[in-house]
Every structure is written in C-alpha cells, then in structure tokens.
Amino acid sequence: MNMRIIGWTVAACAAVAVVGCATKPTDAEVSAKATQMLKTSFKARGQAGLDRLDQDETQKLCTEYATAVPPKDVVTKVEKANFAAIKWPADGKYLGDWKKGERVAQEGRGKQFSDDPKGPVGGNCYACHQLAPQEVSYGTIGPSLYQFGKLRGYNDEVRKYAYGKIWNAEAYNACTLMPRFGHSGILSEEQVRDLVALLMDPDSPVNK
Ligand code: HEC
Question: Is residue 60 one of the residues assigned to a domain?
C-alpha cells in the first residue's frame, strides 16, 4: 500500500469515529439523547408545562415495549400498581347523571395550552368510542360501548369495573391506548360517575 492510500484510510477512520459509527451508542445513551431532544424542542405554554414530558413508572415501562408485546411480568406489574392506585368513590356509589356524562363524553376541550384552565374539561370519549347511537361521528380506536350496560348486566360488579376502567384504564389492560382519566387528574370523581351512568343507567341512550 502506498503512502497516499494509507493517509486516506486514516482520515476516513477518523471521520467515522467522529460521527460515532466506530463505537455503537448504547440504548441508554440513545434514550437519554432522545429525551434531551424532546425537552429542548417543546416549550411550556400556559397550562401545558414541560412536566408533561416526565414519564411515570407505567409510561416508562410501556415506552420500553412500545413496539413489542410486553412480557407477562411487566403486564402484571403495571396492572397491579395501577389498580392499587384507583381512588374509589368514598360512599361506594358509582352512578351519577347520564345527561351530564353525555356532555363529558362529547367535550374534547380542557388540557391544551389554548384551553381555559378553569374549564370545561372533557373526556372526548367519542374520539375513540361509539356510545349513544344519536351521535354519528365517533372514532374506532376503542371498541363500541353501545348497549354497554344492557349487554354486561346492570349490577355493581360491572358498575365498579366501568368506574375503575375510566379512572385508570392501565389497571385492566397494561399499555392500553386509553388515557387514565381520573388517575392523571383529567376528570373529577363526579365526572367519572356521570360517565359510568352514561354507560350503565338503563335510561341512558347508550342502552336503548
Ligand atoms: C385515545 C382513545 C380512547 C379514548 C379517548 C377513550 N378510550 Fe376507552 N378505550 C380505548 C381502547 C383502545 C380500549 C380497548 C382497550 C382497553 O380495554 O384498554 C378502551 C376501552 C374502554 C372500556 C372497556 C370496554 C370493555 O369492553 O370492557 C371502557 C368502559 C371505556 N373504554 C370507556 C371510555 C370512556 C367513558 C371514555 C371517555 C372518558 C374513553 N373510554 C375514552 C381507547 C380510548
């Protein structure tokens, strides 16, 4: 090999080392870099603070398995911890007013930087679910909840499940796409009860 080729090879290797190809970064390094990039590319605006980028234990675990099915022990861990964190209604009553529940299900405003922090805050349930048949515009990310009470049975076990599911969906299905409405402080206990009534009251249009 003549000196010119040796010189070129040395220069190319140095360039590779600078861009980091010579030593592959670890997953932790990539992850730290991605977090840093996220933090520097978002700006706090109004009620939408940068603390929203901080992941709790559940979110961290679910991010780790975002492109794979989480193993059984992770599923159990996430569901157990979230179930234990559910704040059940003090008086044991799960049912509120379905008419108010329908308004909460329809309402999509509440937590964006441009929303009034004083409210209203909604659950935007129709974005992902069919509920009352009168509403023809709904998303299909979640299953249809039409006739939820009628099909499952009007009993306390199902009322409790509906309350717990809306309060903290991760308690029943680890790494679900459904937001944790009560747990994350999006909806109040009263609003969750009103939604349970929308699903579980025999007079609700959901059960007609
Ligand atoms: C971003 C989409 C999304 C939103 C918004 C959403 N959900 Fe869900 N929901 C889902 C998905 C996906 C499932 C199915 C997977 C699961 O059970 O976690 C589900 C499941 C459910 C179930 C359990 C259904 C069953 O068959 O047992 C109930 C009850 C429910 N959602 C109620 C609600 C209510 C009430 C709201 C509004 C406060 C709501 N959801 C908002 C995505 C969503």
Answer: yes
Q: How far is CA 166 from the centre of its chain?
A: 11
- If one residue of 109, 128, 188 were mutated to test the ligand 1 pocket, choosing by the most ligand atoms within 8 A of its CB, it would be 128
Q: For the chain, how many structural domains are there in total? A: 2
d(CA 90, ligand 1 centre) in Å:
24
Is residue 163 within a helix (H) or strand (E), and if so which, with residue range? helix 156-167
CA distances from 111 to 45, 64, 122, 135, 181 (A): 11, 26, 9, 23, 12
47 located within any domain: yes
Atom of ligand 1 nearest to the CA of 187: 38
If you measure from the C-alpha of residue 128 to the centroid of ligand 1, how many angstroms do you get, rounded to a whole number?
7
Domain edge (last residue) among 71, 87, 111: 71
Question: What's this model's pTM, rounded to 2 decimal places?
Answer: 0.89
Dump pLDDT digits (tens) for 103-160: 999 999 999 999 999 999 999 999 999 999 999 999 999 999 999 999 999 999 999 9
